[in-house]
């Protein structure tokens, strides 16, 4: 608010006697001061205001104004103290006050006296309003972050991010455990939703058990993963650890290229995990042509980038480093728009927690053909073990072949060796899936194969980390786009 100061005319001021100061219009009544004090400062202002007006000099008013401004608490001010520090009686003499020339300066002094009382009150009110405004904005920002986290798994996100997810604070990294259990189902409800685990609703089967499609009463479609049993009423003991491990790790991660955990059931001899339903089957099924449509080169490249982003998140941006240990085509699920989601965290492990620790020692787990040979030999697990598996997966995506082809001749049985031999001979097109009816630029093909062989290097020190892999794939994708425009 703009304040305009108006000075009284010299004639008017000169006509005022100092004894009339108490009766000036700006000498507010006691009642008014009491109302102002109660409304704005919650204090009684009648003591400093209701005083006997005595003649005071201009110098005294100036000193009073300055003193009020320098005091830490204006409300503690008392005129009696000022009077005790005032000049001598001689200085209070009317002759020395020279009312005609110096008196106009008293107006700002009086004005400052009022401001000294009032400004702290208004300032406190304003600060309180600002604090509320800041708090509201903070709460609103928290709500917006939450909405971003929920939408991070949505299909509305662009096909491929422009770069590797930059930081946990931007990529909905580690949601609270309260997110788990968003789907609460009893065993009876699960049995009903899967029609007593009907084979017609079975999506697949792995080491942990079978996965079923289920439609909940509210219409939501989910995937039900049920642990295997030795007999009808007995669970396999080793699967209990796998179940606990998967639930614990899935509860701490959130990424659009990772399957989300919605709930679980651990009651009696039943171990059931409820996850989001990904409707378009596995990558391996598509490479086998089971869905009637062959993945084109661009779709395969996009899937590789999605998986690289997921592993980068697990290695760098999760609450703790997570090593998947079972990266393979049958654990990559595809959405209707062919976005990839990494699933099955039964073998996953948290990585080294100490900065000086380079690995963790653990039993070897994984799938033949994807296993890191150094991990297999030393029992030392690092994130580079996932990098090796990704290199094998990349060759699988390009060639359509499984890592181990037992029905082929000895020279072609191990796919990575066969592909590396073809690469060295310069026969790059022989490596491509014969079902791919496309002409791919050889430079693009050479770069992606070179990256795959770097990832699948026998020793982990020769492998890039997943963040570097994702960045290189992005550059390859841009070059592939340029080659299409040229054609």
Characterise the protein shown here.
Keywords: ATP-binding, Kinase, Nucleotide-binding, Receptor, Serine/threonine-protein kinase, Transferase. Its EC number is 2.7.11.1. Belongs to the protein kinase superfamily. This is non-specific serine/threonine protein kinase. The protein has about 475 residues and is of the alpha+beta class. It is about 45% helix and about 10% strand. The chain has 3 domains: about 15-125, no CATH class; about 170-275, Phosphorylase Kinase, domain 1 (2-Layer Sandwich), CATH 3.30.200; about 285-485, Transferase(Phosphotransferase) domain 1 (Transferase(Phosphotransferase), domain 1, Orthogonal Bundle). The protein contains 18 helices and 13 strands. A 5-stranded antiparallel sheet has the order 1-2-3-7-6, sandwiched between helices. Strands 4-5 form a two-stranded antiparallel sheet. It has a two-stranded antiparallel ribbon with strand order 8-11. β2 (about 210-215) and β3 form a beta hairpin. α4 packs parallel to α8 (about 105-150), α14 runs antiparallel to α17 and α17 (about 440-455) runs antiparallel to α18. The longest helix is centred in the first third of the chain and has 46 residues, at about 105-150. It is globular. About 30% of the residues are buried.
